[in-house]
Amino acid sequence: MAEKTVSSEPAAKAGLQQALLAPVRLAMGIVDIPMRAWQKLTGVNGMAGVFLAPNMLIFSIFVLLPLVINFIYSTTSGGAIFLPNRTYVGAEQYRILFDCRSYLDPSTCAADTFWAAVRNTAVFVVFQVSAMLVAALATALILNRELSNRGFWRAVFFFPVLLSPVVVGLIWKWILQRQGLLNYALSPFGFEPFSWLSDRFWAFFFAVFVSVWAHMGFYALILLAGLQAIPRDLYEAAAMDKASPTRIFRRITLPLLMPNLIVVLVLALIRAVQIFDEVFVLTGGGPGTSTMYITQFIYETGFASSLRNPGLASAASILMGIVLVILTLIQLAASSRNEKKGKRQ
Amino acid sequence: MSAVGAFLLRRRGRGWHWTDVVTWIWLISGVILMFGPAIWLVFSSFKTPAALAEFPPSVLPYVTEQAVVPGYDKPLPLYNVTMPDGSTRVLAEVRRIGIMGQMVDPKQLDEIVKVNIKDRTPVREVEFATNNYTEPFQRFDFFLFLRNSVFVTVVATAITLLVNSMAAFALSKYQFPGRTAVMLMILATLMVPLSVIVVPLYSVIGSLNLFDSLWGVILPTVATPTGVFLLRQYMLTIPDELIDAARMDKASEWQIYWRIILPLSAPALAVLAIFSVVWRWNDFLWPLIVLSRKELYTLQVGLNVYAGELNVQWHYILAMTVVSMIPVVLIFVFLQRFITTGIAGSGLK
Known about the structure:
Shape of chain A: globular
Number of helices of chain B: 15
Structural class of chain A: mainly alpha
Number of strands of chain B: 8
Order of helices and strands of chain A: HHEEHHHHHHHHHHH
Oligomer: heterodimer
């Protein structure tokens, strides 16, 4: 009896699967008829276009077309959304963006919030990326040691990566509030409760901290994959030669990890330049404009503020795009140099 | 530097080295720092508004015990009171005037005792405020947000898999003029982030009449270059002989794609599916821009809007946040291995 139920269960499951898949099969069979006709007409290679078309269509409409429109958009002004309703003003938007008496002081610029956002982003990128690299490298080196339950420890550091930026922002907002966990944890040391996010310095600190917290596991994982690809016998040979740990790290680990380090560095840079969601939920850009970054400027200028100016937002996003293209080119150059190096060795 | 080097050198069974100490400190503080905030969120989401406002906060959701006292309409909160003679009694508070509380003994109703509030501590019990979870479903559009998020995630993932795998099949198994150009274009746009094209994309969506429509959220995300790239790399490893054999058997190209290539690409499709679900579920900036009618909000947009509006009602926000975390945590628990190998192998996120 028992055997019978065991054997009939998978059969029932398979039957259900068949039943569920039947309409999909039918639909695909129906699609096959025009496909066959088309194939007769164009030959096998003509089918490539058919397979490529849906993706290319969506891609062109929602990625390529906006990329082109963005340039036209940035030469127009007014609050209208549709391009034909907008007035052409040439380089006016760029002139506004670059209209500064002194570039060192954002408040002397016509678009002062833009320059505040640029400066904030630059400072943020420097601190966030270096903190990210150090934390991810340290975590990867530690996870690469001979640990039992390595899978568990890897998962620990990876967990926040999957959380949504809104959840990340809300969790930390909750912890950092005046009656929050952090103030409680600090109270035995004689600290008075403090509104961490209403202070300029601490709001910046936690913007960096929270974004590192949320993404560090991702980069640590890439570095860990690189560390595990380093052949073990290199270390054994070095140990045989009684090389010092410092020397081994500098002569073996670091050079062989370099390709992964560069990937991590550039990915972290590209993402730090675009920082928005977590910090927006955490601080809303405040206090004042101290944690307002470029993407938030684009969002607010283009969509949210009462003085909507999509043309200006477009121009700002093109400037940001240029920075990102430069970063990408650096990555490509660096990785091709690495490849050449690898071939020579 | 030498410390870092030593990590790589140490072998098991040589006793404790100071680098072991550092390792364990790092790992244990990692557990606290990475899991702690989320666990704190879950515990907090079960607290009543009164318990949330409390400082210092407690880990477990305590509430003040209450007693029904004859002669009073509402249940009264119970307190442990230290009497002037040093004894303690359990009294119920009738009202509070300044620093004095007027208390009554639930068993002896004859006298009202006036007590300095310094001399009383609430009688507390652990109670999970599950109505933080049930009320948002009834009072807000929470269920609607949830439905919208599920719809966007499922439909966008299905389209992503279909459309990207078709393109990847064409790019890996056919020789046609312009193949390299298409590939280069896809690679070039890999690095174009949404934030660069939001403004013109908004006007494109507008001219297609997709404002305030979930399709406006779904469509721009489905032709992801990352997906095409990942699937193409995988399909290149499928031997062409299989396809040639199928052609001999008079299978159409569509059948080859559907019956041979897709089933064989299942591992890569699974990785892309997991990522697509996580991306779409977590999306924030684009839905925030496209959706302005409340009944169309996805969970993430709804959460953020409520967090702004209901600043004082953290008990609802925390509970909604926990619910929005559930699918991602489930994916994490069950598919962690696939996700981490997917990332390590392709640098995909």
